[in-house]
């Protein structure tokens, strides 16, 4: 019988689960050169190391199984080969045939431990509630526990239950009936659940919940063991066994602590108030992952956001941005016609929150908030025991509990009970999902940042929370969690970075620790500026002296990297953004641009805008919409505090963005780099999809970015919107066709001396795909990419690589000598042994230097490879593409093309007009329309009609920098 709904049965695996939605980025360019984004275990290394590569040794594009190997270097050897998979065993994507060998070998620690699994049988049952009702997982667990307690003759062992619909047993339940369609054993149970009597009231009879258990499948753990040993393909049986193990090791902690998914958040742990009526808490995450020959338990720190516990009035004031000592009687908590909007927002925020309510006689009752009332307690009436109308405030006064704030609004439960705010306290441990303000987001990041050694020490305390030895769920399966093996030690290699080629006194530079600087370096292809404008949008902290100094420093910084001007002095325009409606800001700038055109007989090549320090995001979006979308004019936004009296390094970083936007190339890897294979010209592409936040019916935004030049340094993008939360890129064929056609034309015009050798390879990096969607990518996106190549008349062999970041594996140095200044492992650390998939061709790469906290490695999975790259070759390509990110003089955490695709997605707001409320307002799907699918279609059509395309003058340029 197929399971119902979202059962999370794809867990484990290569861990086949989903990831969270990413928030939207996009803000003023700060001219800091850009920072990289974002930090799994093994036993003794298996197989030979293969030796370390010599410094500067190139990596050849050698196909697997064709002989040869990476170019020798000093002591370099072929990676350790693996035997082929047995007949009938298939990987999802490309099977692993070897391990890499290039780089300096060193041991690293991984936040995981080993798990021993006995050969047992696991029975998987579907747990359905009468009427398919949806309760909270915590209450569902109470029902199942009551079911077990009332039927001990049936449940010889405690059920392993995920809180939703999946229940696992190591013994077959003697169910008395059968499912009509599947003929599987089935039985319906009546489970009484008693609730405590309300304060001063009589005890209520227990409520009967009907639970139907149906056998779904019988799973033999032997199949999982065979998968780990490469003698069986991934299948539903293997997935179910791993899912049951994950539920088992998390069950005890999930029952005793607030939890979400595989994360638990112990009460009384570390926390911090972040505003918005919220607090951030530190908890733990754990998940079982299959590795070659054995299972490991990945344990990590998890950060959760909860409703602020304590007095409800304090939580309300915090949400409204008011201080606790402010005049609460003048706040929106006291209703009037002017504060309806704030109260409605607060009511939506509190909907579903559980509070501990104090009655007039001193008793307590836990209730859920349905909504907030629109009148104060002194105006809300109900009938008392004598059937006489009485206000809520008078009721408490008569019972010797007068209200301190009788004119303040009340909460209302779904059954109509009205309780004053001051009589309520928010219950602790309630997790919240909502869009955070930038200030709250920064506080979450600050709270979650831990140096590697601190993070590892925090994780070591997790065993006290999970308490494996006392968990009867773990014991019922016969699991043995080897806590003494934490953290696991495995073998890593540190790859050599590419030399970066510039013009000027220092034509080449060797990055150290993933970074380098722009001193005495000029762009390899600097684009001239044919006149420019300077728009001052800061009128309080900016004067004519600031203007004169700033534009001279700007010109000086541009010349230092090779950018030349026809006319150095800009046309300066001052616009007070507070005196111009946001919708008219673009027109105000356009009017000044027309003055420039009259004077120079051409539009400016560049418009630099000085933004106010605060509250500038809407101004930024309006400028980008005017420049990128409507006019096709290149814009560069700078914050006034950064641009005033800035140092040369700041201007050098600004020029990284400016030159890329103008169509120039800042730097390229040297000829020895793996990505500069002139015999096999390669197009590099990246793709990403960004989804709306929780509860929103806004569309998702898809972006595809592709290289145009042979060096893989110049890119263009295509972007589109599609129905919300659909991960597969629906218009990939059309989007990729445009890019590939432009890549073909670019070589003919810009690289005529190289165009005799046609494009031969296409390496496509796909971000944001969960491991449960790999098969979908191969079935849907790969054919569209192949069709795009045919449309563009390019005979290229395609390699398709998925890049994953939303995982919990972190790497730690074993000694201080192997760590950088931040305590993290050095850039170029790659792991492709012990902790990887049993079958798939995957590897972990930490490509960026640590800044703050613990670096997150990226997980690469090769799902299609017509080019038959060696392990060393594809790892070198992935790493060295992290150095061509044009906004920074440092390597970043993922290859540049996929990083660019993420930025393009985050700029989706600028594709709407600045006065277009559709980008901010709630979707129409939140209305009372009964047909939700029709409402979603209406919401999508509304967004699609307003969505504006990038101006053709910008379409082939890196306007998104």
UniProtKB/TrEMBL annotation:
It comes from the Eukaryota. Coiled coil: none annotated. Residues 19-32 have a biased composition (Basic and acidic residues). This is Piwi-domain-containing protein. GO terms for molecular function: RNA binding. It comes from Cylindrobasidium torrendii FP15055 ss-10. It holds the Pfam family PAZ. Residues 33-56, 64-78 have a biased composition (Gly residues). Residues 1-90, 915-942 are annotated as: Disordered. Residues 606-913 form the Piwi domain. PROSITE patterns: PIWI. The lineage of its organism: Eukaryota, Fungi, Dikarya, Basidiomycota, Agaricomycotina. InterPro entries: ArgoL1 (IPR014811), Argonaute_N (IPR032474), PAZ_dom (IPR003100), PAZ_dom_sf (IPR036085), Piwi (IPR003165), Piwi_ago-like (IPR045246), RNaseH-like_sf (IPR012337), RNaseH_sf (IPR036397).
């Amino acid at each position: 019988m197929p399971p119902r709904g979202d059962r999370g049965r794809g867990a484990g695996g290569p861990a086949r689960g989903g990831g969270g939605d990413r928030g939207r980025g996009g803000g003023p360019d700060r001219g800091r050169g850009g920072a990289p984004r974002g930090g799994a275990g093994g036993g003794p290394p298996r197989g030979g190391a293969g030796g370390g590569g010599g410094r500067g040794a190139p990596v050849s594009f050698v196909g697997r199984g064709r002989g040869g190997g990476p170019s020798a270097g000093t002591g370099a050897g072929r990676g350790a080969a693996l035997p082929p998979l047995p007949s009938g065993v298939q990987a999802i994507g490309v099977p692993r045939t070897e391990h890499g060998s290039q780089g300096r070998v060193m041991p690293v620690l991984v936040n995981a431990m080993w798990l021993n699994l006995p050969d047992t049988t696991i029975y998987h049952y579907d747990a359905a509630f009468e009427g398919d009702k949806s309760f909270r997982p915590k209450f569902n667990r109470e029902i199942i526990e009551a079911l077990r307690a009332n039927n001990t003759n049936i449940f010889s062992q405690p059920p392993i239950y995920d809180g939703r619909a999946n229940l696992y047993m190591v013994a077959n339940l003697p169910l008395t009936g059968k499912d009509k369609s599947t003929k599987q054993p089935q039985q319906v149970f009546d489970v009484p659940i008693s609730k405590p009597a309300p304060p001063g009231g009589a005890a209520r009879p227990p409520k009967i919940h009907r639970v139907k258990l149906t056998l779904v499948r019988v799973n033999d753990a032997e199949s999982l063991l065979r998968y780990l040993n490469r003698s069986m393909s991934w299948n539903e049986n293997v997935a179910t066994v791993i899912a049951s193990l994950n539920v088992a090791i998390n069950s005890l902690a999930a029952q005793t602590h607030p939890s979400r998914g595989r994360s638990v958040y112990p009460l009384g742990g570390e926390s911090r108030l972040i505003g918005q009526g919220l607090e951030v808490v530190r908890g733990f995450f754990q998940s079982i992952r299959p590795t070659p020959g054995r299972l490991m338990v990945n344990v990590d720190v998890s950060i959760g956001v909860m409703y602020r516990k304590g007095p409800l009035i304090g939580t309300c004031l915090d949400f409204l941005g008011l201080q606790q000592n402010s005049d609460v009687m003048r706040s929106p908590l006291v209703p009037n016609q002017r504060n309806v909007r704030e109260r409605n927002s607060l009511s939506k925020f509190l909907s579903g929150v559980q509070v501990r309510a104090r009655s007039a006689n001193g008793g307590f009752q836990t209730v859920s908030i349905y909504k907030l009332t629109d009148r104060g307690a002194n105006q809300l009436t109900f009938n008392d025991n004598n059937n006489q109308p009485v206000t809520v405030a008078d009721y408490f006064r008569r019972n010797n509990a007068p209200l301190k704030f009788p004119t303040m609004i009340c909460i209302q439960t779904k059954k109509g009970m009205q309780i004053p705010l001051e009589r309520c306290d928010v219950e602790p441990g309630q997790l919240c999902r909502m869009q955070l303000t930038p200030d709250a987001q920064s506080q979450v990041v600050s709270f979650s940042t831990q140096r590697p050694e601190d993070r590892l020490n925090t994780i070591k305390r997790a065993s006290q929370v999970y308490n494996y030895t006392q968990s009867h769920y773990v014991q019922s399966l016969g699991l043995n969690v080897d806590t003494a093996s934490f953290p696991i030690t495995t073998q890593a290699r540190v790859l050599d970075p590419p030399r970066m080629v510039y013009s000027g006194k220092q034509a080449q530079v060797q990055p150290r620790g993933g970074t380098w600087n722009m001193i005495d370096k000029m762009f390899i292809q600097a684009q001239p500026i044919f006149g420019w404008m300077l728009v001052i949008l800061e009128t309080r902290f900016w004067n004519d002296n600031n203007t004169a100094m700033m534009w001279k420093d700007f010109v000086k910084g541009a010349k230092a990297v090779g950018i030349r001007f026809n006319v150095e002095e800009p046309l300066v325009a001052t616009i007070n953004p507070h005196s111009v409606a946001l919708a008219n800001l673009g027109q105000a700038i356009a009017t000044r641009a027309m003055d420039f055109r009259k004077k120079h007989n051409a539009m400016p090549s560049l418009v630099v805008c000085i933004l106010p320090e605060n509250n500038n995001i809407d101004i930024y979006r309006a400028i980008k919409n005017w420049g990128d979308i409507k006019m096709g004019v290149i814009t560069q936004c700078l914050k006034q505090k950064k641009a005033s009296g800035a140092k040369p390094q700041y201007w050098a970083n600004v020029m990284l963005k400016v030159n890329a936007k103008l169509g120039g190339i800042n730097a390229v890897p040297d000829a020895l780099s793996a990505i500069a294979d002139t015999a096999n010209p390669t197009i590099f592409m990246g793709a990403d999809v960004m989804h709306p936040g929780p509860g929103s019916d806004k569309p998702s935004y898809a972006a595809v970015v592709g290289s145009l030049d042979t060096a893989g340094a110049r890119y263009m993008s295509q972007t589109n919107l599609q129905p919300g939360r659909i991960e597969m890129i629906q218009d990939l064929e059309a989007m990729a066709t445009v890019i590939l056609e432009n890549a073909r034309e670019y070589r003919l015009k810009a690289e005529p001396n190289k165009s005799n050798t046609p494009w031969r390879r296409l390496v496509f990096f796909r971000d944001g795909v969960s491991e449960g969607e790999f098969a979908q990518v191969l079935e849907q996106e790969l054919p569209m990419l192949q069709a795009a190549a045919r449309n563009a008349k390019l005979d290229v062999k395609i390699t398709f690589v998925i890049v994953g970041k939303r995982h919990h594996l972190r790497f730690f140095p074993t000694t201080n000598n192997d760590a950088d200044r931040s305590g993290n492992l050095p850039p170029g650390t790659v792991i492709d042994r012990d902790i990887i998939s049993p079958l798939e061709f995957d590897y972990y790469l930490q490509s960026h230097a640590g800044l703050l906290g613990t670096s997150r490695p990226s997980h690469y999975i090769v799902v299609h490879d017509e080019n038959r790259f060696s392990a060393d070759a594809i790892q070198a390509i992935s790493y060295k593409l992290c150095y061509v990110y044009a906004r920074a003089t440092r390597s970043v955490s993922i290859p540049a093309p996929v990083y660019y695709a993420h930025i393009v997605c985050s700029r989706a707001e600028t594709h709407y007009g600045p006065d277009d409320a559709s980008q901010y307002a709630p979707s129409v799907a939140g209305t009372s329309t009964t047909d939700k699918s029709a409402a979603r279609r209406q919401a999508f059509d509304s967004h699609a009609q307003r969505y504006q395309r990038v101006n053709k003058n910008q379409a082939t340029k890196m306007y998104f920098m």
